[in-house]
Amino acid sequence: MKRIRKGDQVIVITGKNKGQKGEVLRVLDDKVVVQNVNLVKRHTKPNPQANQPGGIVERESPIHVSNVMIFNPSTNSGDRVGFKTLEDGRKVRVFRSSGEVVDI
Fold first, then answer.
1. pTM > 0.90: yes or no
2. What is the C-alpha to C-alpha distance for residues 32 and 65, in angstroms, rounded to an integer?
């Protein structure tokens, strides 16, 4: 079970994008792609078969998972994630600071 999943709200804790918040769009092996964070300009050739225009396109680049923390709305800051097994046998993610469940 991964600590950070697609759809989670995260905050960047180090690097040039420190302090920015966003939603996780994709989770790669040890990297995550966060919406509107770590934008790079990519020069693309036009592809008429895919109906894709050419030019300079801005898109998100992956960030290492150690450089982001899951955002805790109750404390309004980043928080570490732990795991807990509930009475019914489900394994859920919990915030380390408060112990409340991340997954709903």
1. no
2. 6
